[in-house]
């Protein structure tokens, strides 16, 4: 089941592992990941933090120097950062030189009293880091590490040589931004919990991310006043709105508190960026037949043929179940909704021999790996299957996270939703629809807005289309939807130059419609 770590949609609860529905979905047989390849990657990259911490617990030294606290675990030196407002959290920092030695880097863990340890890796901007905005990137999952984004998509380096080496990525998002890759929630990627504590639902994870940011800004105040953007892919479309909401509410409280009475910093939340996300399952599940039968990469030849008809007949039941999850939020309503929609809608689509994250590609899982990307297996090491299960047991993926966004947007936080048009898992049609339905003060303007060409600045390439509301065309918009052409679920992987153009213009708030 770990093949579906990019999305919880297909990770059915283990309790039902013998049910007939799972037989339908998983009957085409997945093969275990080649452990020797995986091991190479581990040896290469896991050599720092986690290994030392897990093995080195008995062998520690602690001291204070220049007002800073340090700890030595095995041969690794960490600086410890704490904050009076977060007595139960601390940051453990190192300064690695891997991946992009040309820029300043910090990595390490957020430790919590409940023995959770969230791994992060920060890279300074390659250009004017003092003024460049700050992005936090979260991959989807659950069970999917931000290291996928780092090493495959938008990070300063990419894995090469089957995981034995890396190459510099010239289109890294740290070209014009400072960027933090955070593995959250706990037990995702490098993050770990030795007591087996796990965070089951997105809102809980938001509090840890907030603590992380505050601690990070205590230690690195130089980044705290920069515009802050939270960007997330895939299932991140569910937890980024939750995290943004926690930040927004804390900011409100802080601004009401008598000045100086709090030691917390207001976080300069500028935008939320959702990449091929799952945010409003009701609307998005409802779009599956339209995408599969009539989209630019339709997988069935005949839009009124029996397969398309069958797919369409399942949608009302799927939506009715999701509706009861929305109305009566409990495992009893939300888990069945996920189960039904996954097996009945995605089930048949998974039998087609296509890569569900990019249907332009075929997928033979025996050859291409469980995830349909051969290279992805090299990073699969960081994934932790356990997490997948905890999330879908709660039915977390069936909630409408879009509801968390309007307050923020009406108060000046911008929203960018983009989607590669060849992705079947979180297709662009459903993403555009939920954005169109967002009940904000930009609603009328967005509904009336046309999709217009988006052309990259450097290459002059028609990379997709953009539809936008707010700022009257003088900025990148307050609510903006972008379709990326010739791209699947992981846009920066398929279209690195276009993705860099998009994020750079977005964070600099410069119109995407101009060329
Ligand atoms: C890693 O890749 C670089 C070029 O990107 C190359 O110069 C170097 O020799 C490689 N290292 C190994 C161990 O293969
Ligand atoms: C739109 O976004 C800008 C930031 O680019 C913000 O200053 C402005 O207040 C937002 N517009 C509205 C009407 O909220």
Structure explained in plain terms:
The chain is 35% helix and 19% strand. It has 515 residues and is of the alpha/beta class. The chain has a domain at 36-282 and 399-507: Rossmann fold, CATH 3.40.50. The strands form 2 sheets. It has a 15-stranded mixed sheet that branches. A two-stranded antiparallel sheet has the order 8-9. 53% of the residues are buried. The site of one 2-acetamido-2-deoxy-beta-D-glucopyranose has 3 residues, from β9.
Largest beta sheet, briefly? 15 strands, mixed
Task: Give the CATH level 1 class of the domain at 36-282 and 399-507.
Answer: Alpha Beta
Question: Low-confidence stretches at least 5 residues in length (pLDDT < 50)?
Answer: 1-58, 379-394
Strand content: 15-25%
Short structural description:
It is an enzyme of class 3 (hydrolase). Residues 1-17 form the signal peptide. The radius of gyration is 22 Å and the shape is globular.
Which descriptors would you attach to this protein?
515 residues, alpha/beta, Rossmann fold, 15-stranded mixed sheet, two-stranded antiparallel sheet, 18 helices, 35% helix, globular, disordered N terminus, binds 2-acetamido-2-deoxy-beta-D-glucopyranose
């Amino acid at each position: 089941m770990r093949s579906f770590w990019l999305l919880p949609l297909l990770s059915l609860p283990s309790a039902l592992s013998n049910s007939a529905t799972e037989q339908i979905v998983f009957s085409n047989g997945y093969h275990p990941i080649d452990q020797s390849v995986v091991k190479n990657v581990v040896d290469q990259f896991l050599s720092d933090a986690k290994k030392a911490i897990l093995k080195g617990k008995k062998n520690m030294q602690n001291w204070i120097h220049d007002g800073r606290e340090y700890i030595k675990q095995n041969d690794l030196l960490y600086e410890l950062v704490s904050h009076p407002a977060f007595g139960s959290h601390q940051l453990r920092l190192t300064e690695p030189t891997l991946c992009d030695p040309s820029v300043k880097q910090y990595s390490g863990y957020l430790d919590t009293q409940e023995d959770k340890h969230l791994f992060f890796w920060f890279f300074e901007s390659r250009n004017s880091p003092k003024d460049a905005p700050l992005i936090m990137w979260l991959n989807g999952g659950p069970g999917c590490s931000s290291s996928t984004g780092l090493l495959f998509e938008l990070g300063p380096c990419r894995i090469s040589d089957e995981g034995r080496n890396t190459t510099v990525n010239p289109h890294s998002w740290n070209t014009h931004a400072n960027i933090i890759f955070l593995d959250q929630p706990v037990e995702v990627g490098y993050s770990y919990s030795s007591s087996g504590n796990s965070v089951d639902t997105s809102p809980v994870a938001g509090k840890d991310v907030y603590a992380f940011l505050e601690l990070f800004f205590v230690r690195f105040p130089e980044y705290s006043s920069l515009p802050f953007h939270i960007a997330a892919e895939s299932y991140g479309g569910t937890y980024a709105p939750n995290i943004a909401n926690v930040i927004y509410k804390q900011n409100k409280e802080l601004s009401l508190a008598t000045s100086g009475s709090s030691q917390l910093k207001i976080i300069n939340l500028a935008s939320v960026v959702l990449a091929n996300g799952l945010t409003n399952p009701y609307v998005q599940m409802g779009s599956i037949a339209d995408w599969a039968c009539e989209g630019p990469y339709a997988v069935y030849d005949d839009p009124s043929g029996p397969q398309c008809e069958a797919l369409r007949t399942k949608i009302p039941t799927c939506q009715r179940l999701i509706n009861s999850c929305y109305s009566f939020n409990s495992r009893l309503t939300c888990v069945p909704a996920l189960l039904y929609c996954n097996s009945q809608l995605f089930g048949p689509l998974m039998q087609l021999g296509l890569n569900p994250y990019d249907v332009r590609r075929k997928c033979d899982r025996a050859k291409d790996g469980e995830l349909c990307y051969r290279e992805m297996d090299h990073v699969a090491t960081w994934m932790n299957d356990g997490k997948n299960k905890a999330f879908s047991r709660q039915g977390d993926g069936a909630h409408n996270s879009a509801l968390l966004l309007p307050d923020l947007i009406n108060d000046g936080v911008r929203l960018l939703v983009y989607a590669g048009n060849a992705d079947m898992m979180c297709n662009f049609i459903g993403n555009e629809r939920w954005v169109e339905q967002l009940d904000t003060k930009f609603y009328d303007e967005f509904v009336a807005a046309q999709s217009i060409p988006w052309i990259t600045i450097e290459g002059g390439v028609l990379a997709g289309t953009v539809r936008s509301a707010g700022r009257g065309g003088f900025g990148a918009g307050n609510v903006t939807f972008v379709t990326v052409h010739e791209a699947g679920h992981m846009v920066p992987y398929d279209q690195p130059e276009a993705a860099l153009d998009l994020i750079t213009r977005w964070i600099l708030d410069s119109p995407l419609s101009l060329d």
